[in-house]
Design goal:
The complex is a heterodimer of chains A (324) and B (367).
Chain A (H helix, E strand, L loop, with lengths): L20 H5 L1 H6 L15 E4 L7 E7 L17 E12 L11 E8 L14 H15 L10 E11 L20 H20 L7 E11 L6 E6 L9 E10 L4 E12 L2 H43 L11
Chain B lengths: L12 H11 L19 E5 L7 E7 L4 E12 L4 H10 L3 H6 L2 H5 L8 E6 L8 H15 L3 H5 L6 E11 L8 H13 L2 E2 L20 E2 L19 E8 L2 E4 L3 H4 L4 E8 L9 E8 L26 H9 L14 E2 H12 L4 H14 L1
Parallel strand pairs in B: 4-5
Antiparallel strand pairs in B: 1-2, 2-3, 3-5, 6-7, 8-9, 8-10, 10-11
The chains are: A alpha+beta (324), B alpha+beta (367).
Chain lengths: 324, 367
């Protein structure tokens, strides 16, 4: 054998990763660690939203579903997942001279997962899932923005997902799930719509209404084929073993209209029920968004008032605060 | 910042306004006035056009849009996950019992999403442009939704079929090609056949080399063995658009340019004899009407005796007051909630649009 004996070589064939002995020895043990939904079926997860945090952008917002304070567990398998999205809006700004004439505002939406956002590392080049999400968010926003007021201009909405919702529980392994195209994406989309809408409102771009995202799902309760299917709002994919179908919407509460809908799975005849559920979930997010925008506006007015007072006093022009 | 090129319809604001008002009449008058709101454009379809593929189909619409789909299957080794091995281990004890059971039971839930691979080629678009990516993900998602197709690809614990579905749009995308592509894929999958397996259980798979003995991927209702599970038909995606109170199916490119909202609905035939028609996926599509140029009313145009607004604020107010004057303004907002359920009902109901399309495509295959 002509092997290199001076170095410690890797094994010639592939090896399997180590598995904790107890999960292999006791077949039921792994399943006993499975988390279950502690919220009511119509109870949403708490969200955190803040606007106006990137000074160089026209508008920006940050959205987070924080990790609930969970009781101490004896396992390393995380039982919940979080969602963190940062949105920034650049523009409206004039199109480059080389671009053809556009009678309306050109909206470009870029959705990018951070490389560390999901279980599998994402590269720096956008893959098809991210492009698809970008199309969804764009269609949610395009119906809301009054584009004809900005001819010959463009606006960029950049969404960075710092941490994405899981597609399933870690203990289930990767069989057909870990590729990042599962149920977690719907939560990500709903979050993206909410945060992008908040950022656009923060940027002061004319809209017909605030659009908010929401998710509802049909999940199978109990084991076996004859499990009862129930509707839950804002599903956390780690909590449910069998998600049958799910739906994310972008909803305009003031006009009772849907600008974006993404429903997938074995919907059956439950489509109306799913849409209804997703709309209820989006109303929850809308409430938070309105509060936050109002708060930002108040603080902006207060700051402007302060500035006026400073100017009348003739304070030395030291730090000039640039507002855009 | 690339402007969307597909949607570019060269219609003036006056033409758009005319088209919209004729489409929102009751009954609507479509661009092709011989068609009702639920009529599809006529098409020519054929199947088994590619001899080297397991299944193939070609559909050409009357406006010149043409799509070709080839389905190829390859045997691939299944990667065993650590948890899969563990299952294998614990099942060892009741192996005998398991063998006695029907194969069908064993197949269930074994399939993986990655066993189906789909690619969409549209001339003039790069692979990573928004349109092909969106089309591919909608088609894949609706195909995999029920989970029956991927279970069908299971051979044994170590091997499975890998299904490659390659979709080619032969002409430039003259209208939104989603419905056409999905119908062609449906026809190709209906006629796809896999070589018959002659090896047993966990042996290395061996196949019957007689192509006539090959089994269809989607077993037909008429020749299914007794007791076998009835499988769904592959899904078909139906495009519907809303103009005012009217819902119009299979819109042409010009009609899309005045749509309030567009919905793509993926529908599979009802399961067996029960009339539980099923939806597998719904997506809204951003209508190109949002990008159309707004018209300038005579009252704001000095060339026609109007007065030019003095300030931009003044222009905005005048513009907002035009809402129902017939001067073209791009539609705003989305789809009313009631309209969404109305459209889905029109597709799903017995004798609805979905059933019609699936039956029509099935008729091509039989006759």
């Amino acid at each position: 054998m002509n092997t290199d004996r001076r170095r410690t070589n890797a094994p010639s064939a592939g090896t399997a990763a180590l598995v904790f002995a107890r999960t292999v020895k006791e077949p039921g043990y792994l399943q006993s660690l499975r988390p279950s939904r502690t919220r009511e079926p119509d109870e949403l997860r708490r969200i955190f939203l803040q606007t106006n945090l990137i000074p160089s952008a026209t508008g920006s917002a940050y959205y987070e579903i924080p990790l609930p304070r969970s009781p101490t567990t004896s396992t390393l398998i995380p039982s919940t997942s979080t969602l963190k999205i940062l949105a920034s809006v650049q523009g409206p700004k004039p199109l480059p001279r080389s671009a053809p004439f556009s009678p309306t505002l050109l909206l470009t939406t870029t959705v990018k997962f951070a490389p560390f956002a999901t279980r599998h590392r994402r590269g720096y080049i956008r893959d098809s899932v991210e492009r698809d999400l970008g199309v969804h968010v764009e269609s949610a926003l395009r119906g809301v923005i009054i584009g004809e007021r900005w001819p010959k201009s463009g606006v960029d909405v950049v969404l960075t997902i710092l941490e994405a919702d899981e597609d399933g529980w870690w203990g289930d392994g990767n069989a057909g799930k870990g590729d990042g195209s599962g149920w977690g994406l719907l939560n990500v989309l709903a979050g993206c719509i909410t945060v992008a809408s908040a950022a656009i409102a923060d940027a002061g771009i004319d809209c017909v209404d605030l659009v908010a995202g929401g998710v509802a799902a049909m999940v199978k309760k109990g084991e076996g084929k004859e499990g009862e299917v129930v509707k839950v709002l804002d599903p956390s994919p780690t909590d449910h073993k069998d998600i049958v179908a799910a739906c994310a919407v972008g909803y305009l509460a003031g006009r009772d209209e849907i600008t974006e809908m993404w429903m997938k799975g074995n919907v059956g005849a439950a489509s109306d029920e799913l849409v209804e559920g997703a709309i209820y979930a989006s109303l929850g997010n809308l409430g938070v968004m309105k509060e936050v925008l109002l708060e930002t506006l108040k603080s902006k007015i207060r700051a402007a008032g302060q500035e006026d007072v400073d100017q009348t006093k003739g304070s030395p022009p030291g730090d000039v605060e640039m507002t855009g | 910042m690339a402007p969307i090129t597909t949607a570019a319809v060269n219609l003036s604001p006056a033409e758009l306004s005319f088209l919209r008002s004729s489409l929102s009449q009751t009954p609507p008058i479509r661009l092709d006035h011989t068609k009702g709101p639920r009529d599809f454009r006529s098409m020519r379809a054929e199947y088994d056009v590619i001899t080297s593929a397991n299944g193939s189909a070609r559909i050409a619409l009357e406006d010149g849009t043409e799509a070709l789909v080839g389905v190829k299957a390859e045997v691939e080794q299944t990667r065993q996950s650590i948890f899969g091995q563990q299952n294998l281990h614990t099942e060892g004890a009741d192996e005998r019992m398991l063998l006695e059971q029907d194969d069908k039971v064993e197949e269930e839930g074994k399939g993986q999403n990655s066993w189906v691979e789909m690619s969409v080629e549209i001339p003039g678009f790069r692979d990573d442009d928004a349109l092909p990516v969106f089309l591919a993900s909608m088609l894949t998602e609706s195909l995999l939704a029920s989970g029956e197709l991927k279970d069908r690809l299971y051979i044994n614990r170590r091997f499975h079929w890998k299904l490659y579905i390659d979709i080619l749009l032969l002409s430039p995308p003259l209208s939104y090609p989603l419905a056409l592509l999905s119908m062609t894929t449906h026809l190709a999958l209906l006629t796809t056949r896999l070589p018959a397996l002659i090896s047993e259980k966990d042996e290395d798979p061996q196949f019957n080399d007689d192509w006539d003995a090959a089994v269809p991927l989607y077993p037909k209702d008429t020749e299914k063995p007794t007791g076998a599970k009835v499988m769904d038909k592959p899904p078909v995606i139906i495009l519907a658009m809303a103009v005012g109170p009217n819902v119009i199916f299979d819109p042409s490119k010009e009609e899309l340019a005045v749509a309030d909202s567009v919905l793509a609905i993926a529908y599979t035939g009802s399961k067996g004899s029960t009339t539980g028609a099923r939806l597998v996926s719904i997506r809204t599509i951003d209508p190109p009407s949002h990008l159309t140029p707004p018209g300038v009313p005579n009252s704001m145009n000095s060339a026609t005796g109007g007065t030019v607004p003095t300030s931009s604020a003044d222009a905005l107010t005048q513009r907002e007051m035009l809402a129902n004057s017939g001067v073209w303004t791009p539609p705003r907002g989305g789809m009313k909630r009631g309209l969404v359920s109305q459209v889905t009902k029109m597709v799903v109901e017995a004798g609805g649009v979905g059933e019609e399309v699936i039956n029509a495509l099935q008729a091509i295959e039989i006759g």
